[in-house]
Amino acid sequence: MTARVTFGATNFTATNDGIGRVSRLCALAMIEGGYEPDLISFLDKPPASLAGRPVKAMNGGKIGFAARCLASALPAGRPALYATAGLARAGRALPFLSAPYGVWIHGVEVWGEPAPRADYIAAIKGSRLIIANSAFTLDRAQEKLGPLPQGRRCWLATEQDEPAAPVARDGPPTVLILGRISLDEGYKGHDELVDAWPSVIRAAPDARLMIAGAGSGLDALRARVAASPAAASIDILGFVPEAEMDALWNRASVFAMPSRGEGFGLVYIEAMWRSVPVIASVHDAGQEVNVDGETGFNVSLERKNELPDRLIELLTNADQRRRMGENGLARWREHFRFSRFKDRFLAILDPFVSGR
User: Fold this and answer.
1) CATH fold of 4-160+337-354, please?
2) Which listed residue, of 70, 96, 178, 197, carries a Cα 20 to 30 Å from 185's Cα?
3) Rounded CA gap, 109 and 84, in Å?
4) Which strands sit side by side in the sheet containing 174-178, from one edge to the other?
């Protein structure tokens, strides 16, 4: 008998949006694992589909999304899984109708400041299953919310199962940061990289810093760069379309996102997939993904010189960049390719769906 499950997600479109990428991973794993998921998208516009399966696209309609999820889960108490705590609010009535639901938790929406919303907390605690993208996220969530015995860790992955094609990076040594630039959050490390850059170019005069991403903090970041004595070697690219991402990555010698708030950091494993060494931080789940001294470095932002020193070390040593990039690819193969995610995810989902 084919297993059926309702899966409510933000979107299934192939974009740089992290939650959307997790939703795609889950849906693809379900389909390859023999499930018949009922895919319901909050934000996608109709018509929509994924891997040949139709997506019920609600185009941002909250009431329509909640009603569709409820109607989908009702037959025979079909279990439901939601991609975020916010979406899981649509499932809070299901336990009263003998239909269990599970929820993904990703990071700062659960353990950041200010405290999580009360309705998010209720949706998480009322679930039969909690899937956290890292041990760090699950631990921090329990610090905020109390014990979550239904919590399980499931590392994420890329959608690929084969390495990226090798690339000859013959240009100047280049550091890439790719991520949302937000005034409200500001934790991804953009400011720290800009502030470190004058020290970097004194040691590596031809080095460049590429900043890709958009958000409410973009103008403030532009002003910070303009005031830097190293402004001439910093490129602010803004939003980069998905079709141009390969060309962007092909210019990167090092990926650096010394963040304070990553629940996992999909972009770190994308760098590993492309054999690019990573600089993350010791302050969040980046240290769970990136192995310090092997696939790159995890820096403390409390130690002023650590970030520029590690950048200089990589930018001035091509052999070390190559070795750490190769180590990163090996780590991706072992833990972060799609088939590894599928095995982890289905090992968690199967007992939930079967009621075990």
Assistant:
1) Rossmann fold (3.40.50)
2) 197
3) 9
4) 234-238, 208-212, 174-178, 254-256, 278-281, 296-299
